[in-house]
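Model it.
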Amino acid sequence: VNVLPVDVAWMNDAEVVVAVKVGAVGKRRIPQLNWRVNTLLSRVGAMIPNPATAKITVELLFRAVEIMLERQTTLAVAMTGPELLIEPELGDMGLRDFHQLEGAIDAGRRAAEAALPELSRSLDSAPAGPTTGERVLNLRFDPVCAMVINPRRARAQVTREGSTYYFCSENCRDLFERSSKVEM
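Modeled.
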């Protein structure tokens, strides 16, 4: 259910998070039937199973899942923004294109190689973490969306009456601010 688990890397207090977008929302066209043919097949489908209509239904379902996964990935990037997001160019590959695995691997390799200079800059500018001693895991929950937040990576924070609240995004902070004003 977590297609781009950047928040998991945050929980482990990573200094630099590199995410690879592996979901494919192909640019494929969903097969469509001419309306006259569709009407005919619908009538025939009432008497016997209709493989053409079943194929279109399956294609629509897979496309809907691909769109949903793309939306979830886009939201994850917006909310948890890794230091580097690698997006292989997968063309028209979709969820069921296992036969194109070598092409997907090659696309991933090309995208990773193209991202190496940016990765090097991110690693050079990363804050130095503790070099000795035990690592302390310091996590909070965003009070609006309940996302786990590492305070070092919080996109926003608010201090009220001695308590500091951490947020995954400025949107969650703004919602918190608005709801706090209503309560006052």
